[in-house]
Amino acid sequence: MYSVDKITLNRNPRNAIVSKIPEISSGIKMYDFDSAFISGLLKTFTPSRILEVGVSNGGTTAVILQCMKELGTSFSMRSVDILTQAYDGSQCEIGYLGKKAAELLDVKDYRLYGGVVLPQVIETLASEGSFDFLILDTAHTLPGEALDFLVALPFLAPNAVVCLHDIRQNQKFPPSPYNIASNVLFNSVVADKYVNTDETRAPDYYPNTGAFRITEDTLKHVNNVFGALTQNWLSGLDEEQLRAYNNVITRHYPQESLWIYEKAVVMNQNSLRYLAAQNQKSEECGFAKKLVGKVTRRIARRIGF
Q1: Are 136 and 162 a contacting pair, CB within 8 Å?
Q2: Angle in degrees, CA 62, 68, 74, rounded to 5
Q3: Which range, of 82-96, 225-239, 244-258, averages the lowest pLDDT?
Q4: 68 vs 87 pLDDT, higher one
Q5: pLDDT computed for residue 174 by the predictor
Q6: The domain defined by 2-281 carries CATH number 3.30.1660.10
Q7: Are 94 and 112 in contact (CB under 8 A)?
Q8: Is residue 277 predicted with pLDDT exceeding 50?
Q9: CA pair distance 198, 168, nearest whole angstrom
């Protein structure tokens, strides 16, 4: 199922939390349409266990917390980010706006985990219960959101909703052709999919935020997503991070999925090593050329040229 404009946009939570904490206005790293779509999803599906992967300043966290408080249903929320400080150069603690909102709104069951990748904490988090709402807003380059989804999937409830930001990031201006992870996941996963037209900002473009709902076919055809990982990764994982991903993947997927995953990892590790070596050679060559040029100019001055 592919549903277009079926989610009623809900703009009130963003407006409400900004009125309470004005600095959140500049800390929400998505447009009003995207926030309204996410709040619309929350109002439509009323989840009880929310997992957010990719936090930044925590502006979106704050909107989600406000929305859930408005709905008045019991919920818990967990946020995870690989960083410990916001990436915008503010030197602020990761997710600081979300923590501020949680305190202001008196949300008792909110926890933030910084400085870790999802597989390092997912089993601990899921021991409290499976998640029925997942929002992924991380690297946008492969393996990014696709790999994090595969890690999260075994811990999602039946019919869980997965929301993706920046599914059109590669087609923004200027284009970012490597920012395809969310798009690749959205279009490779088998699920019920939801998008709304962004009538205000980009009515002729594909929306930048979308969602899908897990069905019984999602796991049946999960190798579509594993296969997507054979595309080029822009950045690798360090040894400890890769080990964490490997541990979760190998414990929760069948052999045919692992066969695809292992090939994807090996190919991309080799590609990234080659590209790193070529880049190093280029830098060394550039340095050598500069040095030769500098010496040549110095000699020329000495001999009167």
Answers
A1: yes
A2: 130
A3: 82-96
A4: 68
A5: 79
A6: no
A7: yes
A8: yes
A9: 12
